[in-house]
Amino acid sequence: LTRNIVVRDTEEFQELWSASDLCVIAHAYAHAPLAGSTAKADRPLFEAVRDRLDDLYLLRLSPGELAGLANSFGKLQQASELGHVMFFDRLGRNLARTADELGLRGACVALSAFAQASVRHEPLFGALEAPLPGWLHGRDCDTRQLSMLAHAHVRVGLTRSSVLPLIWERARRLVPYSDAHGVSVMIYAVTKASALGTGSGGEELVAALGKRLLALLQGGGSGVKGAHAVEPATVAVAAYALARGGCAELVEPALWRRLADEAAEPRCLERLSLSEAANVASAFATVAREAPEAADLFRSEFDAFFSALRRRVDRELGGGSEPVSSAGLGGLVHGGLPQPVQPLAASKLAAAFGEARCTDASETVRQLGYHCLMPTSSKTDRLGVGPLRSIAVALARLRVHDDDLLQALTAAQRPRGRAQHGR
To answer: How many other C-beta atoms can be found within 10 angstroms of the C-beta atom of residue 183?
Structure first.
């Protein structure tokens, strides 16, 4: 198919393939069940489609087709790494030209696609600022669409857009009808946009979202059957966003108790990645530090979560083998454990255990420290000074005395050249 698109001359190609045909092809490959894992193999196809869709072809597409095409290429994510930035610029200019015809759904799809591809196309975002206020008050507007719009603006750094306060206002009215996913994404967007304390109603929105999420977790939401309707990733996003945004005391203490209860359940904890679980642990540790009086009310729930997390980490670090020995890194390097835990996730877990003062996780944190120092072939897996230092701080907080590990962590924080030459 790729060869067929590439080799034919322009006149013959235009007779065989319409612009809409190419949109359908891109959509089919972008939304295939294994699209994420086959993106590299399909790259030549997307490049061929991109090169054929010049300005003349794009003019033949409807606003909905343009938004769908952006969505297909957005599924590939980082446009700059794949060479699609100029194509997104052409798409953006054509979408901006037809902005009034997009409608709310098309605007949500288009802006989310540009955000997913990490393309900040200001002419497009700016062109949609005029029609969006009217669409936000339409009958078809729901919290999921509002969260998509808010998240798109926040992800590309347009946190001062005039549209965001309108989204917060409309979201407050729709909160009682929102599902858990829409609530969590909206919490992420409003806290990431630094809307708290700006007079735009951010605090009221967060409080309302917290009440709605609590009702859904308790099984009291409209059309929702029990807490099983709340996905594990939703629990992780909501907890982390609330804590990171300084909202520990803006929501009811009962919400933190329910989040901790849910996160400790195997149906939730086992389905989270260790990085997501570390974010949840960091959120609970932050709440305990910033709202100690509230945290005391649900200390047992927090403790239960950290105990469950420690058991999972111990299992994944062990891999059925004996615990790592502290007899220096030499033995560890040559006869060490497999690495099911990514180094960055391991450092986040160690920091969370340390911040929460989980003394029963002292040995777990020590194992995580050694795990982070294991050699890796990927440069992206090598930890920087910040994560390495956070491990050392966690060891100190939990009073773990291991001179070999502390010396290795100190050496790893030095510049590579100095560490290698022993200077």
So the answer is: 29
Which amino acid does the sequence have at 362? S
How far, CA to CA in Å, does 233 sit from each of 141, 244, 260, 275? 24, 16, 14, 11
Concatenating the DSSP letter of every residue in 129-144 gives TTTHHHHHTSTT--HH
Give me 358's structure tokens: 């989980």
- Quick one: the chain helix, strand, coil %, rounded to 5? 70, 0, 30
Residue type for 119, please? V
User: Of 370, 373, 393, nearest to 382 (Cα)?
Assistant: 373
In the chain, the amino acid numbered 175 is V
Q: Up-side HSE of residue 11: CA atoms within 13 Å toward CB?
A: 0
Eight-state DSSP code of residue 176: G
What is the C-alpha to C-alpha distance for residues 345 and 360, in angstroms, rounded to an integer?
20
Locate 49 and state its tokens. 């489609």
Backbone angles phi, psi at 28, to 5 degrees: -60, -45
Q: Which amino acid is at 196?
A: L
The conformation of residue 93, written as its DSSP 8-state character, comes to: H
The pTM (predicted TM-score) of the whole model is 0.77
Q: Kindly give the confidence (pLDDT) of every residue in the chain, 423 residues in length, as a single tens digit, with 9 standing for 90 and above.
A: 555 554 455 555 555 667 788 888 888 878 765 444 445 546 777 887 788 788 887 888 899 999 999 998 888 877 667 778 899 999 999 999 999 999 999 999 999 999 999 999 999 999 999 999 999 988 889 888 998 999 899 889 898 888 998 999 999 999 998 899 989 989 988 888 765 655 566 788 999 999 999 999 988 544 444 444 689 999 999 999 999 888 888 899 999 999 999 999 999 999 999 999 999 999 999 999 888 887 788 889 999 999 999 999 999 988 533 444 444 344 333 333 444 688 899 999 999 999 999 999 999 999 999 998 887 656 666 788 899 999 999 999 999 999 999 999 998 887 765 444 444
Return d(Cα 306, Cα 300) in angstroms, integer. 10
Choose among 254, 143, 158, 261: nearest CA to 205: 143
Buried b (16+ CB within 10 A) or exposed e, 384-398: eeebbbbbbebbebb
